[in-house]
Amino acid sequence: MRSRLHVRLANSTSKDLRSARHIVGVHEVVIGSVVVGCRIRRHARARRITLRVREGRIHVTAPVRVPVSEIRRCIDEHLNWIEDALLRERACVAADLRVGDRIPFLDGSVTIVEGRSGTRYVSKDAVAVRANDPILPQIEQWYRRAARPYFQEYLERWAPRIGVTPSRLVVRGQRSRWGSASANATISLNWRLMMAPPRIGEYVVVHELVHLIHMDHSARFWDCVGGHWPTYSDERVWLRVHGPELFAGPVALGADSGEVS
Q1: According to CATH, where is 3.30.2010.10 located in the chain?
Q2: I want to staple 67 with a disulfide (CB 3.0 to 4.6 A). Which of 16, 115, 122, 131 is the partner?
Q3: Residue in 154, 169, 158, 32 with CA at minimum distance from that of residue 87
Q4: Is the pLDDT at 8 greater than 70, yes or no?
């Protein structure tokens, strides 16, 4: 599936043109907490900036003499469109689940098997679905149900250590965030973390609980996170690298793909 958008250019100054050649190749665009690859290509015959989303990456084609500032502005102004296009593409990939597929679950995987009743965890390595109904919504529902007690255990473990009292836990399906903490002490966590190794979900819980003390990402916030979770930079890197896969939703693991790590 391909998504495409054309954006006409504003007039460029000679000062801007001097830096135009310096933005080509592969770059990164941050959407929420996810880093998306962005390939920028200059073309002598291009008359406008063109944005495409293909295979989880943003592709930009721009005229040779378009200034760097114009390309950045174009991308910034269309982040919502880019996010929607990425989600549409991921939805197409994630729509192919069927009985017999293996899907990621924490530090391992489970196999989708046929059952007679609602979605349920039938063993340590299998989840049952109604084969005659769409499977993807059933699997998402199962992840959501599994996420609540899983996250609750981490909240109860870490809240006293950090010295905070969350008012409630909400399991959500945020499009580009792993969690959030509100002013009324509600902790919201993304069910997609159930497809990540346990240390990743636990780190996100710690991260959000610290937000009940520091409602920002200041140096004080990160010092507090580091005091409770010294390796947090490793978990942040993992989320940046593997985040797009998780936001794509549950996708069948290939025969040789192994586990998420």
Answers
A1: 102-247
A2: 16
A3: 32
A4: no
Tell me the β-bridge partners of 189. 171, 179
In the prediction, which pLDDT does 45 show?
Answer: 81
Q: Which of 183, 191, 248, 242 is nearest to 216 (CA)?
A: 183
Average pLDDT of the chain, as a whole number: 80
| Token pair in block for residue 230 | 């010294």
61 touches 44 (CB < 8 A):
no
Cα–Cα distance measured from residue 191 to residue 246, given in angstroms and rounded to the nearest whole number: 10
**What one-letter code names the amino acid at 202?**
E
Chain-centre distance of CA 72, in angstroms? 22
Nearest to 54 by CA among 93, 22, 21, 7: 93
**115 close to 86: Cβ distance less than 8 angstroms:** no
**pLDDT at position 115:** 80
To the question of domain 102-247 being in CATH 1.20.1530.20, the answer is: no
Pairing of strands 25-31, 3-7: unpaired
pTM: 0.64
DSSP-assigned letter for residue 10? P
32: DSSP letter: T
Report the alpha-carbon distance of residue 94 to residue 135 in Å, rounded. 10
Neighbours of 48 (CB within 10 A): 13
